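ok trying this again, last paste got cut off
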Amino acid sequence: MSHRSLHEPDFRALRRSHLFSDMEDGQFMEIMSHAAPVEIASGQLLFGQGDPVDAFYWVGEGLVRLFRSSPQGDEKVIELIGPGRFFAEAALFMGGRFPVNAAAQTNSRLVAIDGATFKAWLAQDASRCFRLLAGMSARLHKLVNEIDSLTLMKGTDRLLQYLLDHSDPDDNGQVVVELEAPKQVIASRIGVKPETLSRLLHKLSDLGYVEVKDNRILIKDEDKLREGGLD
């Protein structure tokens, strides 16, 4: 499949990505010749836990939810993957089966990169494997830190950290958080119940620290959020 089947901005962004930026042009084109665009609608399952791994993915547009399901049907959100990020690349080297489910949180445009081709490219040069390991190690370190936060922090502190990590100034210079998913998904992501999240946001609003408008949270007192200690 030619790279011309991909959106040209996606093709250029992939060329600059941490996995591919060190490649020679010919090597990159070889990988891209085995890449395919994938469009999935909101709520659509991309792959299920235990499915064989035949590709890994890059998000061009939208949001993908990685999650696990309990035998009782409860869902635990592991990560939300937004534009410009890869996912499932590590699964290629972990027994060949996906350890989580992946579904579109919103209508999403992805690029699927053939796993067998990518592994064959890595096998040609050990230095490529080391570069890949460096990128994966950095991501693993980030995830371990997040696990520490989930297990050692109180629910309120996890929410405060989430708000601070996802806040950005808007065009008016106000610090805001645009919730990337429904509140019940955010609650699962930070390890609290949806009703607990609603209660904590209401408390922060009453204290004047934030102002909540649908999926947009205006941070009115960032210093107070950093101080924490609301429990």
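PB: full thing came through this time. The CA atoms of residues 28 and 59 lie 18 Å apart.
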